[in-house]
Specification:
- With 171 residues, the protein is α/β, with parallel strands linked by helices.
- 50% of the residues lie in helices and 13% in strands.
- It is built from 7 helices and 5 strands.
């Protein structure tokens, strides 16, 4: 079975994915990390040196490769992955269950403002600017995120509790 986690940056995809994979005794794959390894450079460097179009094509290629494999795994997607190159069409299917980690703007802001130096899209933005940016992105991406098999609300839940909730759903 392929278990996919999707959601906005800061929603906990990597943290929860790692916990869930451990609980299910499955390999954990972070798509952004896989791209970074395949390209030999950071995501930021790929965007700067090769551009977003190149990144999105590479992302689609690796995502598609993972989905075509016969392996079972937990895969955390990049925040934008479902929104480009018809990737949302791969979120459901035979032996595929996808979970949208739905997180409120307020929770995302509280998490991301602590990381805005390592999140270049947010760097230098005030709290109000970040709130507006996050809210706009969530609005634009809502259709794609809601293509997931299951929506899990993450506000006020620990990563452990969310991983347990997903595991219970899979039983």
């Amino acid at each position: 079975m392929k278990i996919l986690l999707l959601g906005y940056m800061g929603s906990g995809k990597s943290t929860i994915g790692s916990l869930l994979a451990e609980k299910l005794e499955l390999p954990f794959i972070d798509l952004d990390y896989a791209i970074k390894i395949a390209e030999g450079m950071s995501i930021n460097a790929i965007f700067q040196q090769k551009g977003e179009i190149y990144f999105r094509k590479r992302e689609r290629q690796l995502f598609s490769d993972f989905m075509q494999s016969q392996d079972s795994f937990v895969l955390s997607l990049g925040g934008g992955t479902p929104c480009y190159a018809n990737n949302h069409e791969l979120l459901n299917g035979n032996r595929v269950v996808s979970f949208y980690l739905k997180t409120s703007v307020t929770s995302l802001l509280n998490r991301l403002k602590l990381q805005n130096e390592v999140r270049p899209l947010l760097s230098g933005k005030s709290d109000d600017e970040m709130r507006d940016y996050i809210a706009q992105h969530l609005f634009e991406r809502s259709y794609f995120y809601h293509q997931a098999t299951v929506v899990i609300t993450t506000d006020d839940k620990s990563p452990q509790a969310i991983a347990d909730e997903i595991k219970d759903y899979l039983r």
